[in-house]
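haha ok so turns out i had the wrong file open the whole time. this is the CORRECT one, sorry everyone. sequence first:
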Amino acid sequence: MSVPEHVQSLHREAVRSNERRVVVVAGSPAATKRALRSIVTAVPIGIGETVYVGSHSPLDTERIDPRRTVELMGAEAELVLIDLQETLIPNAIGRCAGAVTGGGLLVLRTPPLEVWPDRRDAFDESLVVAPFQLEEVTGRFRQWLIQTLFESEGVTIVDANTKTITRSGLTGADAEIVVPTGVAPPADPTFPASVYHRCLTADQRRALLALEGLQSPPAAVILQADRGRGKSSVAGMAAAVLAGEGMTVAITATERTQVDPLFEQAEDVLAGGADYDLSETSTGGSITFYRPGDLLTDNTLEDIDVLFADEAAGLPVPTLEEFLVVPRVAFTTTLHGYEGAGHGFATRFREIVESSGHRCTEVRLNEPIRYAPNDPVERWVNRVLFLDARPAVTELLADVGPESVCARELSSDELFKRPTVFREAIGLLAMAHYRTEPNDIVRMLDAPNLDIHALLADGHVAAIALLAREGKLSHERRLAAFRGARLRGNMLPDIFLNEFRDLEAASTSGIRVIRIATHPAVRRRGLGSRLISHITDSYGHAVDWLAAGYGATPGLVRFWADNGFKPIFLSASRNASSGVYSTVMIRGVSSAGETMVTRFSGSFAERLAASLPDVHREVDADTALALLAAVPQPTSLDLSNDDWRFLTAIGFGPGRYDLNPEPLRTLLLHALTEGHRPEAGSMLVEKVLQGRPWPIVADRYGYDSVGTCRRAVRGAVAPLIEAYGGETVEQERERLRNGDDTNVE
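then structure:
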């Protein structure tokens, strides 16, 4: 049977079963070009249903650049061809596969498979971080990709050079699968029945019925699903109905394209149901997109009636907690897939939702819409890109503690040969970090600057850390970066050069913790600290420092501080995706590293105090408290007798803080950096250090008036004034008690 005839049979089988198939066309560029043309000619799929992903298309079809496959999110096509001859971008494979509908084909154009692992392309070049070289990049992921192609059902492999089929890929499926076309609405819905007719599965109907609960606030709905189950579409239906009822609806996601299916569905509902458009309805409702960081500034949340948070499992819990000021909130998240990792999200987050007063409903959508259940392509993509990776089963780690684990490095060779361990490691990282995606998996296997260390319990991953080697930069490269050149993949040297303007500091070397995660079954048992201790021991004689850069939350700051790390940097703005500020904390290892850390961290408190009333005015107060408590030594308490008399009047007399705020700022900063945690510390940070207006502070902390809030601040600072003021404060208090106020301003 010729290649075109075989592909015709493969396509017929896919159509009958409403499943999808993979066709690998391997060979030289010229041979694969001819094979692709014969395949496109052979299958009865129109040009309008065909997409070519590559820099140059040999076919008269729609073309998408492989770096812009995010455009395929939510899109559909019967035939998607991806050119891997030029470059292998793992994220693109997942996105291309997700766009193929039931009965369709995913075609991979590749070099000859026997030589492909030794090829290097533009993506490999992106893995090279100074001072490493391209020849140090391995080809393990390509080896894994080829292995899965030969072992997975529904994959046909074509040798274009010899025009032969080296693997059939026919599964023998002959049963016709009914394609979902719609379901009946429930009895007495409060959303229009016409909207329910848009639901293609019973799962979507259940989800839409749950979203009706947003009409009666305070309410929260958590939707979880694998890719292709229609959760974004059903969220769009609900958003349209609520906007049509006159509500202000906000949609938040890390990228606008991420929620295109939601907006498309909402537009269809609104266009079909009334004479209003998406931006503003005739009833006064609206649907607007925001990035998470934008929602948390300028009190935007207070003006929103309904919030839909897409891929919520990937956002920091403090950000999600802030979202709960909105009376109606829907959180959607993907269980498996490059969009996110929602494992355990509802379990971890439901308690927080309910404690906010919101009635919480959870729905999981299981039935796929675009293709049949147990689709071969979905199974292959999940396997090759580890999209279905999960942490170790909880029961396997029930009795694990710091003394019962084995701490060691996991080499990329070992991960390649032990995919079960690799799957557990990725599953754990994905649970803790939304941004664990297929490209990251290739970096873990192939990038020369990355190391992986883990705590293993009977061979199962209890904790994992992904590390980057940084520094040891040549004088020429440091000088170029000092003058403004880009310094990729070296976060700490970049900060040394651009924030501290220290050319010599960038010559040091260190290990940056990119990601670290502990299995939820063994959290709060000291395993995270045990892993940090192991990393310190492993690199202690070879580097100058250890560092971590992450989205700052109070708990994380305290974790790193407890392990000897000191803050040196806080970003000037919120991360647009997570909505939190990023911080860098560092720990000296060598004598040179310790000297450098002392110098940089020693000035952090003063720099933060100077920025809190300005660029850091929106920093979470508890996070600021944790950062200030983590500095290595207290700030100066250089106050004159006049300052102390003024402070005494604030704490124990009629003095007004507003007239001269600097003495109290100096006192509070010293107390916080010395380790004091005063009563109402968060309120003091917001009012004294961030300078927020009295009405806002009073409202935030539940005081019925500004005067009541002033008295609360006075009561909170009085113990600090008394503790640090000494004899001058005591004398001034005596004057106040005796009615002598001549020295009180």
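Residues 240 and 269 are 6 Å apart (CA to CA).
again sry for the mixup
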